């Protein structure tokens, strides 16, 4: 008679998540990602990086937002990858459309001009809705109202070092409201009148300007002109209550009415940055040298060899953008009287 079919060896029951290894309380915090269904595999990579380097030890939640409905595949794959709870929200139409005070013909003419000048995303309507949404609305989405802290993650990002402490708790314990890993100069063509609109706002609402602000980070002539320095907002860890404050909302509304999200192509990065620089005290903004991060085309690889070895970093220190002439991070150190990290000269 035929021999019995060989049985495959039994494998351990490995589909169950290992428990979060970091003891202690969790903060009221979530990751947040704006994405389309088609971004599924690029956001999957990002999640994998964030989970491996940080979140598998903490199991924080993850909120996904979209102007359309997420499909089942997107939800299935992302839920499988995230160690915390996942939540999926649809953006209400009012937050992703032209406000009635915008002249749509004028906006269309601008897109044509920007297309001819080959300005990046200059001809895109959806990119403008995205920038306006990230500037003024994501923190007010009903799913976000449950949280006090957020960490923004975009598709196709990478993280290169272990983060072994709770970055949200760090923010709270040190009274930080906003943070960054990369800073640079914005394309002038996308924001020609953003500074004038910001000056109009500060004139109308002088009470919203922080005493010990970072004006020197964003202006070389005491506020006359904007030097275009901004924090790169595709990475952010920040305080949602600050974004929901009257000061920030007044700023967003005055910019929105100025029209530059549609008549120019204002990005959420300069908007968040100008708000943080003017309405927060200096010591409320944090530079995370220890979070190694990549979003095309820039890398923040932590300065300091011992740190990189101790945290199993896999970025090439030669790729670090911080001490490059196009980065504003040296300026951040200087205006805050911070000592630059050991070894930075070698990376210039
Ligand atoms: P870039 O980093 O400035 O080149 O812009 P991205 O293409 O990465 O877009 C920024 C963020 O907004 C990413 O998280 C995208 O997934 C998201 N995003 C961009 N456009 C749209 C859109 O039309 N709909 C949705 N739901 N998300 C978008
Ligand atoms: Mn991106």
Tag the structure with descriptive keywords.
348 residues; alpha/beta; 13 helices; 34% helix; 13% strand; binds guanosine-5'-diphosphate; binds manganese (II) ion
Explain how this protein is built:
This protein is an alpha/beta fold and 348 residues long. The chain is built from 13 helices and twelve strands. It has helices spanning 40-53, 72-81, 104-116, 125-136, 167-173, 194-204, 215-218, 240-243, 246-258, 260-263, 268-279, 305-310, 329-335, and strands at residues 29-34, 61-66, 86-90, 149-152, 158-159, 178-180, 183-185, 229-231, 236-239, 285-287, 293-295, 298-300. A five-stranded mixed sheet has the order 3-2-1-4-9. Strands 5-11-12 form a three-stranded antiparallel sheet. The structure holds guanosine-5'-diphosphate (GDP) and manganese (II) ion (MN). Guanosine-5'-diphosphate (GDP) is lined by residues 33-36, 39, 66-67, 126, 130, 154-155, 234.
Helix content: 25-40%
Reading the helices and strands in chain order gives: EHEHEHHEEHEEHHEEHHHHEEEHH
Strand order of the largest sheet: 3-2-1-4-9
Structural class: alpha/beta
Helix tally equals 13
Question: What average pLDDT do the residues reach?
Answer: 95
- In total, the number of strands is 12
Oligomer: single chain
- What compounds sit in this structure? guanosine-5'-diphosphate, manganese (II) ion
How many whole angstroms does the radius of gyration measure?
Answer: 22 Å
């Amino acid at each position: 008679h035929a021999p019995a079919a060989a049985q495959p060896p039994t494998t351990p029951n490995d589909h169950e998540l290992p428990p979060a290894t970091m003891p202690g309380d969790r903060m009221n915090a979530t990751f947040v990602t704006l994405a389309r269904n088609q971004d599924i595999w690029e956001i999957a990579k990002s999640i994998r990086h964030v989970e491996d380097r940080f979140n598998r030890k903490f199991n924080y939640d993850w909120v996904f937002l979209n102007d359309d409905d997420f499909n089942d595949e997107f939800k299935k794959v992302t839920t499988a990858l995230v160690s915390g709870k996942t939540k999926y929200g649809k953006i209400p139409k009012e937050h992703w459309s032209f406000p009635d005070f915008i002249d749509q013909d004028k906006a269309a003419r601008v897109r044509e001009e920007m297309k001819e000048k080959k300005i990046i995303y200059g001809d895109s309507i959806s990119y403008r809705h995205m920038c306006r949404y990230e500037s003024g609305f994501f923190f007010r989405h009903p799913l976000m109202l449950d949280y006090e802290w957020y960490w923004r993650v975009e598709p196709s990002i990478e993280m290169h070092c272990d983060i072994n402490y709770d970055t949200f708790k760090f923010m709270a314990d040190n009274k930080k409201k906003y943070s960054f890993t990369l800073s640079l100069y914005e394309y002038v063509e996308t924001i020609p009148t953003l500074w004038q609109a910001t000056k109009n706002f500060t004139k109308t609402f002088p009470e919203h300007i922080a005493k010990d602000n970072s004006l020197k980070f964003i202006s070389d002539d005491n506020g006359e002109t904007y030097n275009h320095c901004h924090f790169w907002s595709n990475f952010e860890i920040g305080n949602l209550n600050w974004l929901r404050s009257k000061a920030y909302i007044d700023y967003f509304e005055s910019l929105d009415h100025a029209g530059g999200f549609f008549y120019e192509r204002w990005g959420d990065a300069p908007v968040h940055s100008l708000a943080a620089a003017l309405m927060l005290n200096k010591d409320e903004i944090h530079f995370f040298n220890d979070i190694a991060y990549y979003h095309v085309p820039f890398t923040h690889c932590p300065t300091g060899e011992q740190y990189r070895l101790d945290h199993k970093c896999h970025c090439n220190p030669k790729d670090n953008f911080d001490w490059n002439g196009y980065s504003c991070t040296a300026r951040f150190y200087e205006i805050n009287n911070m000592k630059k990290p050991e070894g930075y000269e070698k990376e210039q």
